[in-house]
Specification:
132 residues; alpha+beta; six-stranded mixed beta sheet; 34% strand
């Protein structure tokens, strides 16, 4: 698992296969480790690998929904939230029966990169404020 990532302003995460070529709203997708644990529990599984959820970044110890409608900083980068990351039908294929419903309300957030840079495992997430 990589310990650093480079976020490119108005594009996405360097090397990510979903990197956008325009300034779209899903440049970064975040999901909380606590929500991943809850999803596994709902499915009766010991654990769920984050890659199955099709999100870029896993956070810990922060309520992602509290960031909704605002901007935030991770390391030296600045992002703005663009919405909740709702589950797609791929969740049934990735997680098995009930996967879609297990992720509902726990899918995390989507964000746009305002100021790019490097982020590292352990970087704090700081809420900057509400968007105008």
């Amino acid at each position: 698992m990589p310990t650093t990532a480079t976020l490119i302003s108005q594009r996405g995460i360097e090397g990510d296969r979903y990197r956008t070529e325009r300034n779209g709203p899903r440049q970064v997708t975040l999901v909380a480790a606590e929500d991943i644990a809850a999803i596994a529990s709902f499915l009766g599984k010991e654990a769920v690998v984050p890659e199955l959820l099709r999100r870029n970044l896993v956070t810990r110890s922060i309520n992602l929904i509290a960031l909704k409608g605002g901007s935030f900083r991770i390391g030296s980068t600045t992002l703005e939230t663009t919405g909740e990351c709702a589950p797609c039908s791929q969740m049934e294929a990735n997680l098995g029966p009930g996967g879609y419903n297990a992720v509902r309300g726990r899918g995390g957030l989507t964000a746009r990169i305002i100021e790019g840079g490097k982020i590292r495992i352990g970087d704090s997430i700081e809420r900057l404020g509400r968007l105008a």
